Amino acid sequence: MFDRLAGRYDLFNHFTSFGLAGRWRALALGPLRAGMRVLDLGCGTGDLCLGAARRVGVSGEVVGLDFSEAMLAVARRRLEKERPVARVSFVREKAESLPIEEDPYDMVVSAFVLRNLYENTRPILSGVLRSLKEGGGVSFVDMTEPENAWWRFCWRAYMNSVPALYGRALFGKDYPSSYITDSAKRFLRAAKFAKLLEEMGFKNVRVRSFMGGMVSLYQAVK
Q1: Which CATH number do you get for residue 126?
Q2: What is the tally of structural domains in the chain?
Q3: What is the rounded radius of gyration, in angstroms, for the C-alpha atoms of the chain?
Q4: CA quadruple 99, 102, 103, 104: dihedral positive or negative?
Q5: Cβ of 174: how many Cβ atoms within 10 Å?
Q6: How confident is the prediction for the chain on average, in pLDDT?
């Protein structure tokens, strides 16, 4: 499905977030430091990967993982154009099938991906935990249904109109309208996702919410 969206996916994210997606992605990169080895889970077109590469620098490494070959093709073109000093590579694999690493990661980051994989949240988090060094961390940003009734009304009105409006304009009949909306609605609310992180074995779980809880940033350590 995402193969058909790759060419204009960044435009879709920009318009549907009213230009704020880049700012939220930058928040997910906040814990990164020079020399870290980082996994971008569901890297898509590589935007978060390249941002991570700028932060970890020449002594760092970034691995982008995604199952869509078309998305990875866009990411590789962007990498060739930008040529960051950090080592950057891409792997085609499902998020729920993370390979066992001989050299575990310092950080696993992800932006607007986990809601699309809501049916496999537990195995994905289990794989992420296994892939991290002791003391390593995660930083995820994603859309969430707000707890507050007023903001929840606004969020549902938005989800039932804005993504479809831009999706049909950019992708035509290829836009998977029901999937995009349903996956966001079925993903765990912020408090429940934070609790799940703790249940899976993560520690020091922190949540920051934006726009009344429509978007949440989750950070935790192994």
Answers
A1: 3.40.50.150
A2: 1
A3: 17
A4: positive
A5: 13
A6: 91
